[in-house]
Design a protein that fits this description.
Blueprint (H helix, E strand, L loop, with lengths): L1 H27 L3 H21 L22 H10 L7 H13 L1
Length: 105
């Protein structure tokens, strides 16, 4: 009975998260394929960054990726991601990025 209850809670949370993603995609006029690609890149990059903070790391650092509940990338993580994608963020663009990160935080 407890397993069924927990499964029900998980499904409810899952539906809530999917609804939130769908609304964000609609608001931004993204196609489902674009959303799936973004989620794949974000999850991959998040896991890569998270490993830097894991207990298995010889230089364990405390950081924003410790909380499993909220998956976020730091500003420096975003800049590394953009660089990895071949994008350069300099000058006014970096200021605009900082403003957006602050607004969304």
């Amino acid at each position: 009975v407890m397993v069924q209850f927990l499964r029900g809670l998980y499904r409810k949370d899952e539906r809530k998260a999917l609804k939130k993603v769908s609304k964000a995609a609609d608001d931004c006029h993204f196609k489902q394929v674009e959303v799936a690609e973004f989620q794949e890149v974000f999850s991959s990059w998040y896991e890569q960054e998270k490993s830097k903070y894991s207990d298995n790391s010889p230089t364990r650092r405390s950081g924003p990726l410790e909380d499993e509940e909220s998956k976020v990338l730091t500003r420096s993580s975003l800049l590394r991601l953009f660089k990895n994608l071949g994008l350069q963020v300099e000058g006014q663009s970096k200021t605009m990025l900082d403003d957006q990160v602050s607004h969304l935080s």
